[in-house]
Amino acid sequence: MLLDDNREIFIPETQEVVKAHPLFRLFATQNPPGAYAGRKMLSRALRNRFVELHFDPLPRFELEVILEQRCSLPASRAHRLVEVMHQLQVH
């Protein structure tokens, strides 16, 4: 489980308390329940351990630019990948 307010975690199997390094950070992502099949609501206790940030989906054009520049894909392939992603999202 994630760390408590003291930045520690207790491991019952070994009876150890592990303290996080001062620079320790954890980043997590989640697809919201209801928008994707098979997703369940997280408990309030778990959600309270995170700072939640919500982002709007990137426009298709921006996704294509990212694929072209970061993955060195030709524009036609980037466009096709984004189209396939969009089709999978709406069906």
TrEMBL record:
<dbReference type="GO" id="GO:0005524">
    <property type="term" value="F:ATP binding"/>
</dbReference>
<dbReference type="InterPro" id="IPR027417">
    <property type="entry name" value="P-loop_NTPase"/>
</dbReference>
<keyword id="KW-0547">Nucleotide-binding</keyword>
<keyword id="KW-0067">ATP-binding</keyword>
<dbReference type="GO" id="GO:0000055">
    <property type="term" value="P:ribosomal large subunit export from nucleus"/>
</dbReference>
<dbReference type="GO" id="GO:0000027">
    <property type="term" value="P:ribosomal large subunit assembly"/>
</dbReference>
<dbReference type="GO" id="GO:0030687">
    <property type="term" value="C:preribosome, large subunit precursor"/>
</dbReference>
<protein>
    <recommendedName>
        <fullName>ATPase dynein-related AAA domain-containing protein</fullName>
    </recommendedName>
</protein>
<dbReference type="GO" id="GO:0005634">
    <property type="term" value="C:nucleus"/>
</dbReference>
